Amino acid sequence: MSSAPQSHDLALPAKKSRSIGAAIALFFAAPLVAEFLLGNLPITFLGALIVLAPLYGGGALLIRETVRRSGRGWPSIFVLGMAYAILEEAITTQSLFNPDYLHLHLGLLQPAYIPALGIGAWWTLWMLNVHPVWSIAVSIALIEAAVPNRAATPWLGRIGYIATCVLFAIGIAGSTAIGYRQDHFLASTTQLVSSVVVIAILTAGAFLLPRNVARRQAGWAPNPWIAGVLALTAGSAALLTPKSWGWGAVAVLLALDLSMFFAVLIWSRRWSLLHKLALAAGAALAYAWHAFIETPAVGQVDPGLRVGNAIFALAAIWLIWLGAKRNAHPPAIERITSTSSVS
Asked: Is the pTM of this model over 0.90?
């Protein structure tokens, strides 16, 4: 081929590319990764998916569908994931501004507190890691790997897309109402307006990123196992960095972020869906093992809790195995779409 194909030329016909099953899987995978695989909520709180799925799952699915419909790729997903993080933590839960979130006495804003902004630099940066990486990107990558023929194409038609928007709006409204009823905290007008502005800038920026797909470059790329171990190591290091280090913790997170950013930027022009799965797998497994030493936000630490942690860890391993099996022999569409540096 003498020239790089355009992203919209790669899409399968609409009826063949749609996958309601994959969309439903992502709708539930996002909250399960974000809260249960992490160990923040015990398995006995699975009923909370009624609220969490429209928020997390609706957000992840909406981001994924919007990006794939526009012919863009992972850079846009990550930027929209950052916008999602601000929306959830600054507008919905308002944890970025609340000095005693839900009266849990967690001291989230104390490490590296910035009085002029009324935020904690550590907590804000941590949320800008947790949501774009785990809640959004990892969930999307794991489900896309399970359907490699449709990894770069939309899964929903117009009605499904509209329904996702409605569910996401319901999730935002429900989570906001529940949080305010429990806490009665309300950020200042300046903080809320500033957050909306940041969300708007990030959202616009996501669609200013390149649309075209670049040709896959020749050269060395790490074995998928190396990419996975790198993600596992970086994710584990981030999870183990004590917030009590304050600005030191901020420095560690920034160093990890920059290291992963440049590694992916350099290598991603030479890798496939299997490499992307490996990155997601490493990050997911970091959550999975750390859950066993995590103290949940609700409930008690008992054998039942650890049984639940094991169940979620095994479910993640099964999903990783499924994606690896289906990508062992990449289908034709994957060989084409993998030419994108980060699509």
From this structure: no
